[in-house]
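To: structure desk
From: M.T.
Subject: fold request, one chain
Message: Could you run this one when you get a chance? Sequence is below, nothing fancy, just the single chain.
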Amino acid sequence: MKKSIVAILLITLMLTTGSVYGESFDSRAEVGILMEASSGQFLYEKNADTPLPPASTTKIMTLLLAFEALESGDIDWEDTTIVSRNAWSAETIGSKMYLDLDQEVTIEDLIYGISIVSANDATVALAEHLSGSEEAFVQQMNQRAQELGMTNTVFKNTSGLPADGHVMSARDVAILSRELIVNHPDILDIETQLEFTFNDIRQDNWNRRFLTSFEGANGLKTGWTTESGFSLAGAALRDDRQLISVVMGTESESERVAATSELLSHGFNQFRPQTVAQKDEVVAEVAVKDGRQQVVPVTVSQEVEVAVPQGRENDIELVVAEETLTAPVEEGAVAGQLLVQLDDETLYSVQLYTAEEVGRANFIVRGFRGIMNFITGLFNRS
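Reply: Done. Structure tokens follow.
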């Protein structure tokens, strides 16, 4: 049977700076990255793999683990927890939602507090509720980061407050942001709320300036400490295209908003989505050793769409990187990758699957083919 889940492999271009398509655009931020959320395709990167203090963009992982726990049924929005002294004391440093010691608070309020006002006290309270202690929760954060392929990330706490060795790269922040947005889109309904009131204290969304100034802005997370500078994982939706940008280490709030707006505008204005293969479309044939038939048609299990620079739509090439198949082969077997390329650079890759089964040829047929291949080889050498 055809497999129901497609493993999408993203091939990332290891450029230090500039557009991944060789264009002249250069972000004003020293560290930045731009991603098409639907596919995970990177459209721009600059020093994107440098590990840096991430400040409160750390909390995107806290939110992801919370939403995954909600989805699995481990917790519910209306569940409550009691604010510990450890969580309550966290409000003395940085942003907070002003939890009271021993107060009973809902999971929903904690998630809203983290999302809208970046509450450190809520982050610790939620971590303790989910894992028993902040330290145990940090272990889960690091494990999930490894599972997502975040190779330049180490978490030391749940909030992003300065800690030796607590780092993320812009690419890792983007990967994490995509995981949250794509699989738990309800987070964006929370992130776009411009204010939050708890214990009769009203606070503005820390991301209010970006949300109110950029068309389509719908998230995601700001960050600032003296050590990290001003960072922003920005998200915006236009014409059903969700883009994610990350800038790190800018000098001011206005600078991070300007750099984020500039990056996202580049993505929306200079790239167009292009469908290069339909779901279940036969895109090529792959050789099958010892098969009754010597090739098998291969398909993709979902529509393949890439973002292409304007005017380059006709320059896209599809390249098959096939795996060695030996009969018998089942229908739905992994048969390699379809590489979507522009100027010999891989923009995106997706796995290929066999469209039908291939039985093993009998001994006589295999022997005859072996003789023919031997004779052909002699002629080729001569």
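Reply (cont.): The first strand starts at residue 31 and ends at 36. Let me know if you need anything else for the meeting.
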